[in-house]
Amino acid sequence: MPQYRAPLRDIRFVMHELLESEQLYQTLPGYEESTRDLMNAIIEEGAKFAENVLSPLNQTGDEEGCHWSEEGVRTPAGFAEAYQQYVANGWPSLSAAVEAGGQGMPNLLGTVVNEMAGTANWSWLMYPGLSHGAVKTIEKHGDAEQKKKYLGQLVQGAWTGTMCLTEAHCGSDLGLLRTRAEPRADGSYTITGTKIFISAGDHDMAENIVHIVLARLPDAPQGTQGISLFIVPKFKVNDDGTLGQRNAVHCASIEKKMGIKGSATCVLNFDGATGYLIGPPNRGLNCMFTFMNTARIGTALQGLAHGQLAFQGALSYARERLAMRSLTGPKNPDGPADPIIVHPNVRRMLLTQKALVEGSRAFLYFLAQLGDVVDAGDAERAREADGLMALLTPIGKAFVTETGFEAANLGVQVYGGHGFIREWGMEQIVRDARIAMLYEGTTGIQAMDLLGRKVLGSGGKLLLAFSALIGEFCDASTAAEDADLITVLRTKKDEWLELSMNIGEAAAANPDEAGAAAVDYLMYSGYVTLAYFWARMAVLSRQKIAAGDGDTSFYEAKLMTARFYFDRLLPRTLAHKQCIQSGAHNLMQMPEAMFDL
What we know:
Layout: H1 8-18, H2 21-25, H3 36-54, H4 58-64, E1 67-69, E2 72-74, H5 79-88, H6 107-120, H7 122-129, H8 131-141, H9 144-156, E3 159-164, E4 180-183, E5 189-199, E6 208-215, E7 228-233, E8 235-237, E9 243-246, E10 249-254, E11 265-277, H10 284-320, H11 344-376, H12 379-415, H13 426-434, H14 443-456, H15 461-476, H16 483-509, H17 512-547, H18 552-569, H19 572-581, H20 585-588
Parallel strand pairs: 3-6
Antiparallel strand pairs: 1-2, 4-5, 5-11, 6-7, 7-11, 8-9, 10-11
Helix pairs in contact: 1-11, 3-6, 6-7, 6-10, 6-11, 8-9, 8-10, 10-11, 10-12, 10-13, 11-12, 11-17, 11-18, 12-13, 12-14, 12-15, 12-17, 14-17, 15-16, 16-17, 17-18, 17-19
């Protein structure tokens, strides 16, 4: 398993130079103390924790896995101790609201720390990772008593949170769920049902677990309109905040998974457990979207994390592994062969990893910044940021996890046969990365959300807002040295709008056209979105070099990677466009009975 090293230079570049975080936070009430020096100091400490505490537990956690017993789930050796250190250092409260006992730092900073922790050990991060969504949900939808009882302990990390949606007979179609909630005379509810795939559903790392559960009231209408949301703690909480009796919720088993084996993915039985309604009756799915949107961005981060770790491992190996001679003559004449990094095909793989990872980092940090504007900006800025987040979140979740998995697979390929052997750790990265394309809605579901709800459903307004942002950047980038990239970006931006309009017209006549186009449309959108960020990074890097700001090799590498992205990866949009334009007929014409002939 590669020993993780935090890419601090690139993190600082994106935060401070590209996104100008310090300047932004001076304009957002409550974030004014987020200076460059303070943010750097926090990030450096987060890097030490990720590198020295979490990374050494990554491969051992995969090999040991979690242990189930009637008494509860035991996590791999070292996980619980690492969590106690995490809590003692104040990391859970970093970007939580001061009113809830948090430190009030920006979401962006929490995203950076989570990226480093998750790259070092994603299985471990699953335990505290969902608590942020639970906090957001209770903050927005909970009543005063619920906030008093649960927020402080969740924010401090003494308790962790989960999201309980899925049932064995229904995955993403939550309208089919059967878990029942029966009202009691004291205002609480009896929760009965079984949930599956519950990440961190039980463990030995925190003293209580707060489950956020979807269930159906007795008189609820059918479908998604009849779902309510409940808080169901593992241990009941007394009025004074102390822990009471064990609630009637238990882990029946741990799922046997392809990857992230150090993370306990649980089957939870709610056997008449005590629950508390959060938000209005029959509006649970609307409330749960607060949690789900937080989790979608967190899952996008998983794609970035596994791509980064695979790139680090592949780059180190490519520099050391000797095989054959360069086609243009020996580059290591005193050795028996040249390092494989000299070969064009290996460079193709490494540059693909680098371009996807660094472009995704810029994209996801931008999304995190938008979240800060939504939370702290004035009404107009918050509205604009919220619209951009609505459009970009499904792209981030699906595209970054798809390309993160591609980068993980390329890591195995660079190692050759050694990549297939467990001791190197590269195959674990692939196994761990695979789930990210399924979490929080598959790529296909994210694609339908993007195309159906966000683009066509808004009459194109959300896409037009992001398109205008791209257009403003293109209009401002007038230097001759930038003209080639800017021309391509502007063309792709216009093509994206035209393609969206054509799909909308086709779907009006045949709704299957939207479903047939959706995944290709999302991937097309992702490549254009990353092109925007790579163009921004290229223009900025050229300006830095011209100004003599130092670190020339770093900025030159950015320019070269941008060129690789535009020349080698952005042309993938042509294939996606052609698939979209081929229509739904080639998917739908074959009768179901003929599939197995």
